[in-house]
Write a structure and sequence with these properties.
- By secondary structure, the chain is of the alpha/beta class.
- Helix content is 35%, strand content 28%.
- The strands form two sheets. Strands 6-7-8-3-9-10 form a six-stranded mixed β-sheet, sandwiched between helices. A four-stranded antiparallel β-sheet has the order 2-1-4-5, with helices on one face.
- β7, α6 and β8 form a beta-alpha-beta unit.
- α4 crosses α5.
- The structure holds adenosine-5'-triphosphate (ATP) and magnesium ion.
- Adenosine-5'-triphosphate binds next to β1, β2 and α1.
Length: 243
């Protein structure tokens, strides 16, 4: 359970205060697939960054499984942050490292190594055949799958996704969403998915928060609709759509 209690975040820029979040309270259930929508600048990325302590709230507290981040010491915070992974719109892979080296990196930073686990997550995202390639040799969808593998290698409880499909075409978006759903169901991970794309929220999320100018306006139970099964085959998809 992730609990945000009256979270406000005010950035200071050129002696001006920018209120990115205004007393936001929210509970995200364990193993939920939670969506977050809102216009540009509404505070979505800030909200995610507070959950893995990339940013610290100006006021309010965040409780993860009942534990207050405000009250944790350095060591407890580090442990908690290690259980939270993040993926981004622009993938954020290291260009001069191979796929496999990119995936190993979080373990390396923790002073660990586990080749079997690295092989497992690469297999899970379907990137084993590309493990010795460099990011520049991959498509956008493949890069995001590597980023997901890199996120999974630390076995996170929470996966924060900041517009992970915004740079992808619809077929690759679908593949990435399918993978994120698999992460949620197979590993019990809580997935928080930020997107501008309402159809993706509708199709994949159980609940969604709507943000506007730093305020959380509402949290909606997403009505599951008959999922339009997308053909795995691109050619077939185009034909079905055009005919
Ligand atoms: N490091 C920062 N310093 C100053 N202001 C910031 C900083 N980060 C974000 N902001 C401001 O806080 C507000 C919320 O930004 P945030 O990035 O959370 O929005 P967002 O909903 O993710 O937008 P987008 O959809 O464009 O990614 C914006 O007004 C932004 O300019
Ligand atoms: Mg953002």
């Amino acid at each position: 359970m992730i609990e945000l209690k009256n979270i406000s975040k005010i950035y200071q820029q050129n002696q001006k205060n920018i209120t990115a979040l205004n007393s936001v309270s929210l509970r995200i259930k364990p193993n939920e697939f939670f969506g977050l929508v809102g216009e540009s600048g509404s505070g979505k990325s800030t909200l995610l960054k507070l959950m893995n302590r990339l940013e610290v709230p100006t006021s309010g507290d965040i409780l993860i499984n009942g534990q207050s981040l405000n009250q944790m010491n350095e060591q407890e915070l580090r442990k908690m942050v290690q259980k939270t992974a993040m993926i981004f719109q622009q993938f954020n892979l290291l260009q001069n490292q191979t796929v496999k080296q990119n995936v190993k990196l979080p373990l390396k930073l923790q002073g660990k190594s586990d080749d079997a686990l690295v092989a497992n997550v690469l297999e899970f995202v379907g990137m084993t055949p590309f493990q010795d390639k460099y990011p520049v040799q991959l498509s956008g969808g493949q890069k995001q799958r590597v980023a997901i593998a890199r996120a999974l290698v630390t076995k996170p409880d929470i996966l924060l996704c900041d517009e992970p499909t915004s740079a992808l075409d619809s077929q690759n978006s679908f593949e990435v969403m399918k993978l994120l759903k698999q992460v949620q169901t197979e590993f019990g991970t809580t997935v928080i998915f930020v997107s501008h794309e309402l159809p993706l929220i509708k199709q994949w999320c159980q609940r969604a928060g709507i943000m506007e100018k730093g305020n959380l306006l509402a949290v909606i139970e997403v009505e599951p609709e008959e999922v339009v099964t997308q053909s795995a085959n691109y050619y077939q998809q185009v034909v079905e759509y055009l005919q």
